């Protein structure tokens, strides 16, 4: 089976233009509020859209569940229908991760937005390129540096976290795959996207090729003082 249909995600946590079709019932005002990366010229359009979709979840989690997530599941199931093990690959409506997600997104409304950061994106990009060059699937760098060391150089004494997704280059696919978090009992990716406790508000995003999975996406999160994000 081609690697593109074997996407995986990995998660770690430490303390210290868009071309998008309007979803049902989403307003222009909601899209405008969520599109915090619109002027981030250091991001590609797909990387900007990763930020947009993550923010739409935070604006109205249940509405995202019934609109964009449904689109993702329908498209994914359509793609994998050609394979003999379709019943294993498909995302069924009785999937435990699909069902638990509804419980988690109910009540998620008007959470603080994620804002992109150029320096943090540079760190995300460096790690994604490293994963590609050395065919890795790890939060650790090829030189052995831990995730905390890699980010803490530029963001010392901050709460931080990281999602890494493999197998997708499309922004909606990346975000929905992380949100469902199928096969990840801790649901770490999901809880990063829905974070309230740790006040994660600053993100770096990079989507790069990967030899084993076709694509990888690195998303780094940092908690910054609110005046920092509000004055972008």
Average pLDDT metric: 89
Radius of gyration: 17 Å
Strand order of the largest sheet: 1-3-5-4-2
Distance between the termini: 44 Å
In this structure, how is the largest beta sheet organized? 5 strands, mixed
- Poorly predicted ranges (pLDDT <50, ≥5 residues)? 1-6, 15-23
Number of helical elements: 11
Structural class: alpha+beta
Encode the helix/strand succession as letters.
EHHHHHHEHHEHHEEH
Q: Count every beta strand, where a strand is a DSSP E run of 2 or more residues.
A: 5
Helix content: 40-55%
Overall geometry comes to globular
Residue share in β-strands: 5-15%
Organism: Pedobacter ginsengiterrae
Protein name: SCP domain-containing protein
Pfam families: CAP (PF00188)
Descriptive overview:
- It comes from Pedobacter ginsengiterrae.
- Pfam families: CAP.
- By secondary structure, the chain is of the alpha+beta class.
- It is built from 11 helices and 5 strands; from the N terminus they run βααααααβααβααββα.
- Helix 1 packs across helix 2 and helix 2 crosses helix 9.
- The N terminus is likely disordered.
Topology, element by element:
Elements: E1 8-14, H1 28-34, H2 45-59, H3 61-66, H4 68-80, H5 86-89, H6 96-105, E2 115-116, H7 118-134, H8 147-152, E3 160-166, H9 171-180, H10 188-193, E4 202-210, E5 214-222, H11 226-230
Parallel strand pairs: 2-4
Antiparallel strand pairs: 1-3, 3-5, 4-5
Short recap of the structure:
Helix content is 43%, strand content 15%. It is an alpha+beta fold and 232 residues long.
